[in-house]
TrEMBL record:
Name of this protein: Thiaminase II
GO (cellular component) term, any one: cytosol
Domain Thiaminase-2/PQQC intervals: 17-224
Pfam families noted in UniProt: TENA_THI-4
PANTHER family membership: BIFUNCTIONAL TH2 PROTEIN, SI:CH1073-67J19.1-RELATED
């Protein structure tokens, strides 16, 4: 299921331009195994740990975004996203505890190369470019997770009965999360109207697609950890 906001405007164009890379991200084997409940627990624990570290850098990226915006209204939207991430961290920690992962253990875990590659790419894009560049790097994660969550929730093949990953799926299809996603997409549209133009589309598409590939690599990191543990 693909909702209209995901296919319209500049976000819809960037998503479409990402093509097979976008499909490889939102339909990654990690995602399909989440839906069926067959994902190895080791893969999910690795993902959760690295996602904790990822969220810290993602919050920094939104702090940088606030500094690159000019209008108070736009700054408030970005600040709301920053606050949502900081609010999500304790919830993430609480959820991870159910998988046997403490915050201290996650904080002490070295960042995986996939985590460093992704988070530093987003931050470097933001430091080198403007708010529009940074938003293009942020949106594959923000809106991609909503598309994944909604898609799985509305897919009859998804197991939501005895699936240990059902709470994760429901979280990213939740209306509260979707409200934040819609605000992020609208902010992208606003900044595109302010600072965009067709001459910028190619560069923005490259940023968006690079971030999409890094998202898929993040999923693959979890599967790789499970494979290594079973050797």
């Amino acid at each position: 299921m693909i909702l209209t906001p995901f296919t319209q405007g500049i976000y819809g164009r960037l998503r479409q331009q990402a093509g097979s890379d976008w499909d490889a991200y939102v339909n990654h084997p990690f995602v399909r195994q989440l839906a069926s409940g067959t994902l190895p627990p080791q893969a999910f624990r690795r993902y959760l740990t690295q996602d904790y570290l990822f969220l810290i850098h993602f919050a920094r990226s939104y702090g940088l975004l606030v500094s690159k915006l000019r209008s108070p209204d736009d700054m408030r939207v970005a600040a709301a996203s920053l606050n949502a991430i900081l609010t999500e961290l304790p919830l993430h920690v609480s959820y991870c505890a159910g998988w046997g992962l403490s915050e201290a253990a996650m904080a002490a875990e070295p960042e995986a190369p996939e985590t460093m590659n992704y988070t530093r790419y987003v931050l470097d894009t933001g430091h080198a470019g403007d708010a529009l560049d940074l938003l293009a790097a942020l949106l594959p994660c923000v809106a991609g997770y909503a598309e994944i969550g909604l898609g799985l929730l509305h897919d009859p093949a998804t197991n939501l009965v005895d699936n240990p990953y059902a709470p994760w799926i429901r979280n990213y299809g939740d209306q509260g999360y979707l409200t934040g996603v819609n605000a992020a997409i609208e902010l992208l549209e606003t900044v595109w109207r302010q600072r965009g133009g067709e001459a910028r589309f190619s560069q923005l598409s490259e940023i968006f697609t690079n971030a999409t590939r890094l998202e898929a690599a993040f999923w693959q990191m979890g599967l790789k950890a499970a494979a290594e543990e079973t050797r």
